[in-house]
Design goal:
It is a single chain. By secondary structure, this protein is mainly β. It is 7% helix and 31% strand. It contains two helices and 16 strands. The chain has helices at 214-222, 283-293; strands at residues 13-16, 22-25, 32-36, 70-71, 80-85, 88-95, 100-103, 117-121, 131-141, 154-158, 184-189, 205-212, 232-236, 250-253, 256-263, 274-278. A hairpin with a 4-residue loop joins strand 6 and strand 7 (100-103). The longest helix has 11 residues, at 283-293. The chain is globular, with a radius of gyration of 17 Å. InterPro entries: Peptidase_S1, Peptidase_S1_PA, Peptidase_S1_PA_chymotrypsin, Peptidase_S1A, Trypsin_dom, TRYPSIN_HIS, TRYPSIN_SER. This is Peptidase S1 domain-containing protein.
Length: 294
């Protein structure tokens, strides 16, 4: 493994034996976590261990929608992915290529290879239409922390390639030439309409949120006992936000992916902007993984 990518996480490697049985191997010398989609046994516990951060995504609290968003057509966000675990919708994601999808590590990291992940693309509905593809394996960022929520990223390698069309297109990573972040973005998904909402939303929704500088965001979150790191990006617009169920989904503008929905304290809380993984700071990890395992 590339030593430059870091060390110190358990490696769960699913290798098919001659009889087709999945075996799991462990190692402490790599920055990757490999998860299989074999042998569904139990749901993942995809929430933060930091008591000050909202529980991001729990299967017994099914998601609904973007806060104060509007229904959007699939062509507005053709890169949008619905991630399912054991046939239950749980998170969003973004298409990077015909065989790779980017999502949040907290959506997948605790499954430990004991369940079935699938992605739906090309549909406004997370339960029907478009294309449904099985996930071959998952690579979660080895330095992801469920307490600090740093490096909250995972890549999904699909078992079969996507068929591109008007509602299924990859999104580009941020340009290295642009040093400043855009002012505003589209965030999309099927997440909660409020922190207390319960009902499952059928259709894809989106809303516009705008950058909150990291220094300002850091000061705001200090009151909640949460630290904001350089690898994070904050965005907010009064009354508009991503919420539980949008996790792993895209924060995008101009055909480029700038953020991955990660966490927040409440939803559309004026005191606490939504927090996203800063994709620009993770480009090297994303590209290295895609190159190595394509």
């Amino acid at each position: 493994m590339d030593s430059g990518l870091g060390r110190g996480i358990i490696l769960l490697l699913c290798a098919a034996a001659a009889a087709g049985r999945a075996d799991y191997y462990y190692s402490n010398a790599t920055d990757y976590a490999y998860l299989s989609d074999e042998q569904p046994l139990f749901p993942p516990l995809s929430y933060t261990s930091n008591p000050n951060i909202t529980a991001i995504e729990q299967l017994d609290e099914l998601p609904t929608r973007i806060v104060n968003g509007k229904r959007i057509d699939c062509q507005r966000a053709p890169y949008q992915v619905a991630l399912h675990y054991n046939d239950e919708f749980m998170c969003g994601g973004s298409i990077l290529s015909r065989q790779w999808v980017l999502t949040a590590a907290h959506c997948v990291a605790d499954s430990k290879g004991k369940g079935s992940f699938k992605v739906r693309v090309g549909s406004m509905q997370q339960r029907r239409g478009g294309q449904l593809h099985r996930v071959r394996f998952v690579i979660a960022h080895g330095r992801y922390s469920s307490k600090s929520m740093r490096n909250d990223l995972a890549l999904l390698r699909l078992a079969t390639p996507l068929r591109f069309g008007r509602c299924v297109q990859p999104i580009r990573l941020p340009s290295s030439r642009r040093r400043r972040l855009p002012h505003c973005y589209l965030v999309s998904g099927w997440g909660l309409s409020s922190a207390s909402a319960k009902n499952v939303q059928r259709y894809l929704r989106g809303t516009i949120v705008c950058t909150v500088g990291n220094n300002r965001c850091r000061r705001m979150y200090q009151h909640g006992g949460v630290r904001i790191y350089r690898q994070m990006l904050c965005a907010y617009r009064p009354g508009h936000d991503s919420c539980s169920g949008d996790s792993g989904g895209p924060l995008a503008v101009g055909g480029r992916l700038y953020g991955v929905v990660s966490f927040g304290i409440g939803c559309a809380n004026r005191k606490y902007p939504g927090v996203y993984v800063n994709v620009r700071r993770s480009k090297r990890w994303i590209r290295n993984i895609m190159r190595k395992y394509s």
